[in-house]
Amino acid sequence: MKFSNGYWLGKDEYIINSPIEAFDTKVLTAQEADKNSETLVVNSSYQQLASRSDMLDVGNTTMSVFSPAPDVIGIELKHFDQDDHNPLYQLEQQAVTPDIKVDPKQARFKSGDLELTVDLHNKFNLDFNYQGKRITGSEFKAQGSIDDLSGQQLGQVMHPNTVVGAQAMVSDRQITRADHYMREQLSLLPGTKVYGFGETFGPFVKNGQTIDIINRDGGTGSDQSYKSIPFYIAAKSGISKDAKGTYYGVFVNESQPTSFEVATEVVDRVSFSTRGESLEYYIIAGETPKDVLGKYNKLTGGSTLPPEWTFGLWLSTSFTTDYSEETVMKFIDGMFERDIPLSVFHFDCFWMKGFEWSNFEWDKEQFPDPEGLIQRLHDRGLKVCVWINPYISQKSRLFKIGKEKGYFIKRTDGNVWQWDLWQPGNAIVDFTNPEAVQWYQGLLKNLLDMGVDCFKTDFGERIPMHDAVYYNGNNPEGEHNYYTHRYNQAVFELLQQEKGADEAVVFARSATVGGQQYPVHWGGDNLSQFHSMADTLRGGLSLMSSGFTFWSHDIGGFEENASAAIYKRWTQFGLLSSHSRYHGNIQYRVPWLFDEEAVDVTRNFAKLKQKMMPYIYSEAKASVTAGIPLMRPMYLEFPNDANCADLDRQYMFGAKLLVAPVMSENGDVDYYLPAGRWQHVIDGREVIVDAHGQWMAENYDYLSLPVWKKID
């Protein structure tokens, strides 16, 4: 969100007050501060304090500095001390004993090798230093306590603290009604590139972008995201022999929508702001991007290892296609007859009757014996997944129960919050109500008792933020993004309880901070086109830069009819991804409906992944332990190779395999090999790449693609 009018001025509709002088400090014990560590508290005035008269009619920002883990420093900025009633992300904190020193000119707070310095009785300034080197900071007037006067009737009294928009005349009474925002701006060193923010489908390097952290159902070709994460990695590579790069992460611990201006509003800073009277963020420092990402991953709950069978091939009924028990068995038989390894069969929405989603009851006209069908799939060695969502149609038999018992989100007038999007009269399960959670889990348990193995937890993004009342009384803006966490947690914990901790898995579309605890996530609704294949991968690599370890996507694209070329090229990509699923909207995704070569491609790459499973699962375990992704952006594995900084059409699959999907019909592909000795996994050739790296331009048929193993 932009508040400025150029570098010096502010927009007339905003009053921006910034800390000018830090005038007072104190150190609180962990118990006094209600933190896990000692806390440094710094009070800063919105004007310079030259005399006692300057202490009248002026606001302050109270800054609390604490540490939840070594090399992590938390900052809470507070204007008024008010409860915003937003849900808090669940953080895994460690006992830390920070080194705190205060002298007349400066306050210092150190956790591990990360130190914050605050100038006192001078121009307000924060510096973050890692291993003695400045990595970022909040410069003079970067912080902001902001009143939004847009839509207000301007009065005739000049607000005493007006810093920008000096023509604005407002009364004290009107100021109390203004919306309020808190802002921070953190500086970027020259050459620093920014990654992350969840599954965003625009340019991979985020410099120059405005990113709003709010989950939306907008497809993979828009600036909206199913998985918005208020976290970014800043990386400035050091490529000379003795140079060290500069790497750190910034996590904004706010569940309500938060806006980031990444080198836009001020081109050498990342600005972030949120509505309310407080703002909390964390600086996470490390020697490498992996180190930074691992610390963030652990802080937000760590990752969970999915069962080994989930890494095999998943086949879906697709969405709006006609299907029944006969169709399903025809697909299964066809895969087995063609010697294509298959691990999971997924039943999409129409396993239930239309207009009745979700009632969690099989459509008995199409599936007269669901228990028998599930058993027959189990007899083939397959696991069974069924589609669910947290919306209850008014036509569902469950609507009346949920309404009477108060299990749905309500409007402020006391009625159930409803609309006609997706299903007629949709209500939304309120997972802040413990009884509603138990009710929902009980409905799913009936399916598990039938033999269902896991669930595709679809949706969770179209959640009301306005005219909405939750059982726990929280701010609906905060509950919007957090909703998906409660939803996936409820389903995942039921699976852990019923199937065992090592067998639980969901196939989720939406996520927020900490969602990596409930794998696996897939990329949402993409198009059956090559450019959408690239969009999808960019989104996945951004998610992998945001604390998630596993990720999948709809092979062939979700929308439209896929061409044979798209299907075969996407099959290669999909079966060299963390998790692999065929799924579509209007078209079946079995290979023989495209051409015979598609059958060969599917067989070859399904067997290749099967052959590589010892490596893949070993790397998956190591990734969970380290808190890093299995599918890795190139900059993450090769942080000192500047050529890798912008690469978004190739990735590392674990520590040793490089994959560059072919995204063209004619088989042409350009990609980059970093320094080292590499062996092509499919054709066996070897190359030795010198310290400068090597760009490759090649052409591949449908039975091959660039997939290289690093062998030294």
Automatic annotation (TrEMBL):
Superkingdom, taxonomy of origin: Bacteria
Catalytic activity: Hydrolysis of terminal, non-reducing alpha-D-xylose residues with release of alpha-D-xylose
Every Glycoside hydrolase family 31 N-terminal domain range: 63-261
Domain named Glycosyl hydrolase family 31 C-terminal: residues: 627-707
EC number: 3.2.1.177
Gene Ontology annotations of biological process type: carbohydrate metabolic process
A molecular function GO annotation: alpha-D-xyloside xylohydrolase
Entries under Gene3D superfamilies matching the protein: Glycosidases, glycosyl hydrolase (family 31), Golgi alpha-mannosidase II
Coiled-coil blocks: none
UniProt-listed InterPro entries: Alpha-glycosidase_related (IPR050985), Gal_mutarotase_sf_dom (IPR011013), GH (IPR017853), Glyco_hydro_31_C (IPR048395), Glyco_hydro_31_N_dom (IPR025887), Glyco_hydro_31_TIM (IPR000322), Glyco_hydro_b (IPR013780)
Residues making up the signal peptide according to the UniProt record: none
NCBIfam families: PRK10658.1
Assigned protein family: Belongs to the glycosyl hydrolase 31 family.
Name of the protein in its database record: alpha-D-xyloside xylohydrolase
Organism: Weissella coleopterorum
Classification of source organism: Bacteria, Bacillati, Bacillota, Bacilli, Lactobacillales
